[in-house]
Amino acid sequence: DPVEDKEALLDFRRHIQHSRSLNWNESSSVCNTWTGVTCNEDQSRVIALRLPAMALNGSIPPNTISRLSAIETLSLRSNSIYGFIPSDLSKLQNLTYLYLEFNRFSGPLPLDFSVWKKLTVVDLSNNFFNGSIPSSITNLTRLTTLILANNSLSGDIPDLNVPSLQQLNLSNNNLTGSVPHSLQRFPSSALSENALPPALPVQPPNIQPSMRKHSRISEPTLLGIILGGCVLVFVAIAILIICCYSTKGGRDGRPAKSQKIEKSLKKGVSERTESQVKNSRLVFFEGCNLAFDLEDLLRASAEVLGKGTFGTTYKAALEDATTVVVKRLKELNVGKREFEQQMEMVGSIRHENVAPLRAYYYSKDEKLMVYDYYHQGSISAILHGRRGEGRTALDWDTRLRIAISTARGIAHIHTENGGKFVHGDIRASNIFLNSQGNVYVSDIGLATLMSPMPPPVVRAAGYRAPEVTDIRKATHASDVYSFGVLLLELLTGKSSTNTTGSDEVVHLVRWVNSVVREEWTAEVFDVELLRYPNIEEEMVEMLQIGMACVVRIPEQRPKMLDIVKMVEEIRQVGTGNKSEISSPTTSTPQAISEIGSSVAAH
Ligand SMILES: Nc1ncnc2c1ncn2[C@@H]1O[C@H](COP(=O)(O)OP(=O)(O)OP(=O)(O)O)[C@@H](O)[C@H]1O
Predict the structure, then answer these.
(1) Could you please report the per-residue DSSP string of 202-262?
(2) For residue 47, which of 298, 321, 281, 316 has the smallest C-alpha distance?
(3) 395-410 mean pLDDT
(4) Is the dihedral of CA 459, 463, 466, 471 positive or negative?
(5) End-to-end distance of the chain based on CA atoms, in angstroms?
(6) Which residue's C-alpha comes closest to atom 16 of ligand 1?
(7) What tens digit of pLDDT does each residue of 176-235 get?
(8) Residue 264 CB contacts under 8 Å (≥ 6 apart), including other chains
(9) Which positions ≥6 away from 519 have C-beta within 8 Å?
(10) Which compartments does it reside in (predicted)?
(11) Among 4, 124, 148, 134, which Cα is nearest to 64's?
């Protein structure tokens, strides 16, 4: 651990008020457990400190952060920090990203920006900074973003001739003078709400600048402008969304990475008033090392992953290169209290096979859930996506591992809330693999939040136990049924529902039952599995478990804890190749048909 950095951070915490708890224990590892702290690869130095929306209150204590001399990212946005930017921060020679917006900083900006040679992004907006904009900013040759909006900066705008600068916002200050040539390439909004002369004089030029210099726009007028702006934004976004959906995603059939959709994620918040935004925070769960706030999420470039039963799911890349998944829920049937209770329950579940809910957000218009992004995608996508040439088939060992891990995950969920918790929506599209191949059960407990009249849940149909008529009333036994369907899916490679040539929908359970009844068991298994040697008995074993889970009468289905044992034992009762990893070779389908009839007996 970087001992000196640790001391500096502890000193920082000691000298600044923070009403949200910071898990910075002296005995724990700075690099691995401390919220908001990131270290370099060999864990010798702290390189990022991100404490957005941590309710920090006070001024930045001198000689604390300035000792983190390797720091590249400093984000203290959306707190209540006041006072000057301490001059000793000039020691942070590696500082690249500086986010101090939405605080109560005041006083002049640091005079000499050139000490931070690597500065790339600077956001000091929404504070009370005054004085002029230092011309030393011109020396920042790597600067791409400069946001100083909503302060009380005055004086002439310096000639910021910084070729790398791509994003500029100096709006809503008291800046005067003419727009320097170097800044004329930016949209006029970058400089709006200042005391600059208008580009086209609509009033006598000698009157307007001086009037505006002394009188800021009155609040009702400002409100009018904001509301008008919001309506315009809303209409524009509505048009964009319509355009977007009419093209049904990217031309190649994949979800379109689209700015329009990104805007739609932002829409909900742009409609809210500023005070609502300030009062509504993302609620993080303990142990979550992610450090971002709502503004980060809204700023993130978002890509639509898909639309599911509960809303739209986005992949959002945050400024620090973290990727998260944001579920934007729709049509919920619950109020704030019930939503929060359910989220707290879901967020407290910790198991190696359960996708942790990282954070959630609730407001009247917007309900968000934040998860880790799983690089390999869902089991459904891996199993059914892209059949044909160039496809990597899901091997038997992986399918077995998915079955065991999912069973363990669900069994754990069933022990929560005094053994009353139900997943309610087990299916292949809610089970994920991360880049290391670990398995995670996701989307827990969402079904119970649905509105009384959910949209036709076609996708869930093949997984839904026959006794479940209302998806909000799922039970442990109905989860077991859905898990059984998942096992059948892993074995057959077929989706939970399939459409025949005559457009008839055939449920996988019915199909498997009919095939097994006719003693054609060998036909059941995925042809992609026939390449693996000595797995027949294991497959038959899994088929038996799957079929036991999908029996019609709920009371006759095994309990999840028993299922875990049964699935774990597949290897032991199988061919005895317990520790071997089956590799793709050829095996004859006859071998399977010989043992197939043993399943029919069950
Ligand atoms: N944490 C995640 N990591 C990676 N991909 C995800 C994650 N969560 C969801 N996805 C993907 O986003 C897409 C949309 O997911 P979403 O959960 O909204 O709908 P679904 O799973 O397709 O359907 P349903 O909500 O009805 O279960 C799916 O392709 C899903 O695989």
Answers:
(1) SS-TTTHHHHHHH-PPPHHHHHHHHHHHHHHHHHHHHHHHHHHHHTTS-TTSSPP--HHHH
(2) 321
(3) 96
(4) negative
(5) 58
(6) 308
(7) 888 888 898 888 888 888 877 654 333 333 323 222 333 343 444 445 545 555 455 554
(8) 237, 240, 241, 244, 312
(9) 596, 597, 600
(10) Membrane
(11) 4
Q: Whose CA is nearest to atom 13 of ligand 1?
A: 306
Helix (H) or strand (E) holding 497: strand 497-499
| 138: Cβ contacts below 8 Å, ≥ 6 apart | 158, 159, 160, 161, 162
Q: How far is the CA of 70 from the centre of ligand 1 (A)?
A: 38
Q: Look at residue 279 and tell me whether its pLDDT is greater than 80.
A: no
Write down the pTM of the prediction: 0.58
Rounded CA-CA distance 521/24 in Å is 58
Rounded to whole angstroms, how far apart are CA atoms 138 and 117? 11
Distance CA 316, CA 323 (A): 6
d(CA 549, CA 466): 12
The DSSP 8-state label assigned to residue 282 in this structure reads P
| Three-state DSSP class for residue 128 | strand
ipTM of the complex: 0.97
Can you read off the two tokens belonging to residue 141?
A: 């040759």
Residue type, 364: K
Q: Please, are residues 535 and 575 in contact by the beta-carbon 8 Å criterion? A: yes
User: What does the alpha-carbon distance between residue 305 and residue 233 come to, in Å, rounded to a whole number?
Assistant: 24
Which position has the token pair 């859930």?
A: 369
565 is in an annotated binding site: no
Three-state secondary-structure class, residue 550? coil
The residue whose C-alpha atom lies closest to atom 4 belonging to ligand 1 is: 374
Single out the catalytic residue among 293, 425, 479, 526. 425
156 is catalytic: no
d(CA 546, CA 417): 27
**Considering all CA atoms of the chain, what is the largest pairwise distance in Å, rounded to the nearest integer?**
98
Of 229 and 368, which is predicted with more confidence? 368
Whole-angstrom distance, CA of residue 418 vs CA of residue 420: 6
Could you tell me if 121 and 319 are in contact, meaning their C-beta atoms sit under 8 angstroms apart? yes
Pocket test for ligand 1, best of 423, 429, 485 (most atoms within 8 A of CB): 429
Report how far apart, in Å, the C-alpha atoms of 230 and of each of 167, 179, 259, 260, 398 are: 22, 27, 18, 16, 50
Cα–Cα dist 229/269, whole Å: 13
- Give CA angle at 489 (485, 494), nearest 5°: 125
Q: How far apart are CA 462 and CA 153, in angstroms?
A: 62
pLDDT by residue (tens digit) across 533-556? 889 889 999 999 999 999 999 999
Q: To the nearest 10°, the Cα dihedral for 295, 432, 454, 255?
A: 60
**Ligand 1 within 6 A of CB of 441:** no
Using a 10 angstrom Cβ sphere, with 0-12 exposed, 13-18 middle and 19 or more buried, the burial of residue 11 is middle
Strands 128-131 and 104-108: parallel
- Residues 251, 427: Cα–Cα separation, whole Å: 28
